[in-house]
């Protein structure tokens, strides 16, 4: 069931913010607004976590001489990517079909955002395989630093809504660009959407 945690996250954020505000920060659909920001971020977060545990999870398999560490890395990458892609497809299908969402959805930009999240997760996760093995303290430090990323990565807000200089500071966070520049759902006119994209 842990693979479908993003479904629960999007649903929970939708319920909470619908009780607080009448409209999302962009567009008309709360679920689509949160999903378009959360899915690219969760591609990174889940991929990096899954890849970092490659060696520990495959100790028995790696004892066979025909299995190399690269085999384990590639297989786990493919497995996690397919899982995340399926979960993302289920979430978006539920939003558009069950929620009767009639919004302008930048699926290409969103797809690029998810691809960037997947690649970033692969890179960070592969680095962490080595770092976790060599430095036990690093694993705890990384966990502490990585935990608040969700709160400052533009998943449930738009950086352009923040006053300066906070907006400029938060855009130094690459995960914020990943979440916000990946194709937010919008029902605004083309000029407004273009200006929104230029912010990232």
Write the SSE topology.
Elements: H1 5-20, H2 30-52, H3 54-57, H4 59-62, H5 69-97, H6 107-134, H7 136-146, H8 166-170, H9 174-180, H10 190-198
Keywords: Membrane, Transmembrane, Transmembrane helix
Transmembrane segments: 20-41, 85-105, 117-135
Structure explained in plain terms:
It is built from ten helices and no strands. Mean pLDDT is 77; it is low at 185-200. 68% of the residues lie in helices and 0% in strands. With 200 residues, the protein is mainly α. The protein is globular.
SSE ordering: HHHHHHHHHH
Number of continuous helical runs = 10
Alpha-carbon distance between the termini?
34 Å
Shape: globular
Keywords: Membrane, Transmembrane, Transmembrane helix
Transmembrane segments: 20-41, 85-105, 117-135
Structure in a nutshell:
This protein is mainly alpha-helical and 200 residues long. It has ten helices and no strands. The chain crosses the membrane at residues 20-41, 85-105, 117-135.
Quickly list its features.
200 residues; mainly alpha; globular; disordered C terminus
């Amino acid at each position: 069931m842990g693979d479908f945690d993003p479904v629960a996250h999007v649903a929970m954020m939708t319920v909470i913010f619908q009780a607080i505000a009448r409209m999302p920060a962009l567009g008309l659909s709360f679920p689509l607004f949160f999903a378009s920001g959360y899915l690219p971020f969760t591609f990174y977060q889940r991929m990096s976590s899954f890849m970092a545990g490659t060696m520990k999870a495959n100790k028995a398999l790696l004892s066979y001489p025909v299995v190399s560490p690269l085999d384990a890395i590639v297989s786990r990458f493919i497995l996690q990517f397919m899982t995340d892609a399926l979960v993302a497809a289920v979430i978006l299908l539920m939003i558009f079909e069950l929620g009767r969402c009639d919004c302008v959805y930048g699926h290409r930009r969103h797809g690029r955002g998810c691809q960037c999240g997947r690649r970033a997760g692969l890179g960070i996760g592969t680095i962490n395989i080595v770092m976790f093995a060599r430095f036990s303290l690093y694993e705890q430090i990384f966990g502490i630093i990585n935990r608040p990323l969700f709160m400052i990565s533009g998943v449930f807000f738009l950086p352009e809504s923040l006053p300066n200089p906070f907006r400029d500071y938060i855009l130094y966070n690459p995960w914020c660009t990943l979440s916000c520049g990946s194709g937010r759902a919008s029902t605004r006119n083309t000029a407004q959407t273009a200006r929104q994209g230029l912010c990232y």
